[in-house]
Design brief:
Structural class: alpha+beta
Strand content: 35-45%
Number of helices: 6
Radius of gyration: 15 Å
Distance between the termini: 13 Å
Number of strands: 7
Length: 171
Amino acid sequence: MTTLEPLAVEHFERVAKWLSKPEINRWLTPEWRNKEITASMMAIAVRNRRNRLFLVRYSGEPCGLAALAGIENVDLTAMVWYLLGEEKLSGKGITSAAVRELTSLAFGQLGLVSLYAWAMEDNAASLKVLRNAGFREVGRIRQSARSADRQVDRVYFDLIPSEAASLCDAH
């Protein structure tokens, strides 16, 4: 079972280590990419009122992060981002389940009306997570991200509450 809980100080160091792993870090936004992430950086991110970060647990064990960034209280939108920190759990649908739970929280408790996310075109796992979580591709910005020493497209996705509700009914 996959669950979310607000990211607490006792998990900052663990999450910072996950975010610093090269196989995870390479996919992050430029302000996080190619940097050693610290517990202090996690504390700053959690204190930012426009962010909501959640520890992902699978069968009770911490294994990832699901987050909302850039929460806009006027436009009622936010960007979704996520990671699976424990590679041994890859392929079990944990991250997709965490993103579905996050969208439910965003639409229900936070009252948001639109969520978006982006992934680099060569990040097949992230593209799959978004599709499995009910997001639909809405476009791309060509050659707008640096990946493996080359420019690649950012593929953008969105989700609105009515689409999320129909996906929940299917699960």
